[in-house]
Amino acid sequence: MTVNQSSETILTTGLERFRYIAVEGPIAVGKTTLAKRLAERVGGNLLLEDFESNPFLPKFYRDMSRWAFATQMFFLFQRVGQAADLKQRDLFDHPTVSDFLLDKDPLFARLTLGDEEYQLYQQVYQHLAPQTSTPDLVIYLQAPADVLIERVRRRGLDMERQVSSEYLYRLSALYADYFHTYIRSPLLIVNSENLNFADQPEDFDYLLEKITSMRGQREFFSRG
Questions:
Q1: Exposed, middle or buried: residue 13 (CB in 10 Å: 0-12, 13-18, 19+)?
Q2: Which of 35, 76, 102, 218 is 20 to 30 Å from 187 by CA-CA measure?
Q3: Continuous H helices in the chain
Q4: Mean pLDDT over residues 183-209, rounded?
Q5: What element of type H or E holds 189?
Q6: Residue 27 phi, psi dihedral angles, 5° rounding
Q7: At residue 4, does pLDDT exceed 60?
Q8: What is the pLDDT of residues 85-113, one digit of tens each?
Q9: CATH number of 7-221: 3.90.550.10, 3.40.50.2000, 3.30.750.24, 3.40.50.300?
């Protein structure tokens, strides 16, 4: 998906040095909403995970142990294809904003697969995973697990009704551990508990100010 915007507008955003931005975080943290807003602002390509096309996902949420491997493999093939497409794009011509990193795929696999399935997954992952483009900036959205649970319940997606609190707690902990040592790209850690990028323009504006002023490899943003 591409959002058209004049080059003059792009250059006045202060975001022109970030040609590839990846937004990451656990379920219901607001990844897709923020990715869409950023892509619109920079007038770039929008690369989103397509959850609705995964036929195994609703079954996975009902019976994780039975459908985890099929669900994980479908997402792996999908993400590998998207990563390959990203490598072929001219990021200097059109910036790209995505709501996922291929690097995080093993997080879900480790959480949901048994030992033997995970070993098989690892073999497939190492064989398929291309040398992906490195983001100029990764924005890691985080929120307390209790907040994520409430957001999942509030948005009321049928397929997510069976998501357990335990699963969200464990997923949040895995993300926190992963990004605690992440060094591939500049990283902005955003506490999204009190942020609403969909309905509060000032929250998005504050975040843009933080992004454009980043000078270090790892910074943190929050609003009380």
A1: middle
A2: 76
A3: 7-11, 31-42, 57-62, 64-88, 105-112, 115-128, 145-155, 165-180, 201-212
A4: 93
A5: strand 187-191
A6: -55, 135
A7: no
A8: 777 766 557 789 999 998 888 999 999 99
A9: 3.40.50.300
Q: Which amino acid is at 111?
A: L
Confidence category of residue 25, pLDDT binned at 50, 70, 90 = very high
Mean pLDDT, residues 170-174 taken together: 93
- Residue 179 CA to residue 177 CA, distance in Å, equals 6
The amino acid at residue 56 is F
Nearest to 185 by CA among 47, 23, 29, 28: 23
Q: How far apart are CA 1 and CA 160, in angstroms?
A: 25
Pick the more confident residue, 103 or 55.
55
- Predicted TM-score (pTM) of the model is 0.88
Give the Cα separation of 4 and 192 in Å (integer). Answer: 27
**169: Cβ contacts below 8 Å, ≥ 6 apart:** 145
C-alpha to C-alpha distance for 177 and 86, rounded to whole angstroms: 27
Which residues are identified as catalytic? 99
Burial class of residue 30 (count of CB atoms within 10 Å of its CB; 0-12, 13-18, 19+) = buried
